[in-house]
Automatic annotation (TrEMBL):
It comes from Halarcobacter ebronensis. GO terms for biological process: histidyl-tRNA aminoacylation; L-histidine biosynthetic process. This is ATP phosphoribosyltransferase regulatory subunit. The gene is hisZ. Keywords: Amino-acid biosynthesis, Glycosyltransferase, Histidine biosynthesis, Transferase. It comes from the Bacteria.
Length: 281
């Protein structure tokens, strides 16, 4: 039995102080992004291309349009924003820096608010890392920024002939059971010194991507940095160095470098609901 006052599990309700805190957080971050040259976009809630962003399509809320084409509620903003700017609005604007404040939706009835940005036709990952660090400083919090490179677990899986699912599921014990010295050292990497030592041990085919990760780690100004070379995230479009920001078991941001329509870009999404919980604590 569903009572009149109930709301679906996973949906969000803000009122009074929580609504004010959400509005103030969104205003503070969007003001900084505006000052850094980002313009705002509000993309449609409905999308034809969400399957290209989300690895697990079961998370999509799907239905059909009037022509029986599959439509999904927006579960991720990145690729839709890039396509809209470069394809639909290409003749109306040549601006490359955009931000958005809007929710995403996943099956069966979950919604999550995000504050995100896309820096189109730009590939210096350090710029978006430092922008993320500036936002964390603005909010006066000091969470862990975990830096990774999606190509490393892919290359390692191929080199040692194991299923990439081991990395996606974080099954470190099974990787350690292989008893490969250089892999064991790579598993232990947490900081720049560890990463430099591991580069000397790994097979040549993996070194280039580790060196790319090392260069990014050395250039970023944010200090609470952890390096996780074997981490494999869930978003399909990141194809190079990428990162997530974590505090108190909350993931409060994901970002990195990706390619769409042959264009290399950067972006991140801050998870408003998680940020509010941390700021409240």
């Amino acid at each position: 039995m569903i009572f009149e006052h109930e709301i679906p599990k996973g949906s969000r309700l803000y009122f009074g102080k929580s609504a004010k805190a959400k509005r103030e957080l969104e205003y503070k971050i969007s003001t900084l992004l505006d000052q850094r040259g980002f313009e705002e976009i509000v993309s449609p809630n409905f999308s034809y291309s969400q399957h290209q962003s989300i690895a697990n399509e079961r998370k999509l809320i799907k239905f059909s349009d009037e022509q029986n084409e599959q439509v999904s509620l927006r579960a991720d903003s990145t690729l839709d924003v890039v396509r809209i700017i470069t394809k639909r609005l290409g003749r109306a604007t040549d601006h490359k820096k955009w931000f958005y404040v809007q929710p995403i939706f996943t099956y069966p009835s979950s919604e999550e608010y995000q504050i995100g940005c896309e820096w189109i036709c730009h590939d210096n990952i350090v710029d978006i890392l430092n922008l993320t660090g500036d936002i964390l400083e603005l909010l006066e919090i000091d969470p862990i920024l975990q830096l990774s490179n999606i190509n490393i677990p892919k290359l390692v899986a191929k080199e040692v002939d194991v299923d990439i699912e081991l990395f996606k599921k974080g099954e470190i014990a099974k990787l350690l059971s292989l008893k490969i010295d250089w892999l064991n050292e790579l598993i232990k990497v947490k900081d720049i010194d560890d990463l430099q030592k591991s580069i000397e041990l790994v097979p040549a085919v993996i070194k280039k991507e580790l060196e790319k990760l090392l260069a990014s780690a050395k250039a970023v100004s944010y200090k609470n940095l952890v390096i996780a070379p074997l981490y494999h995230g869930s978003l399909k479009y990141y194809d190079d160095v990428y990162y997530r920001v974590i505090q108190d078991n909350y993931v409060i941001c994901k970002g990195g470098k990706y390619s769409s329509e042959g264009i290399s870009s950067l972006g991140f999404a801050l998870y408003t609901d998680s940020l509010l919980k941390i700021l409240e604590d």
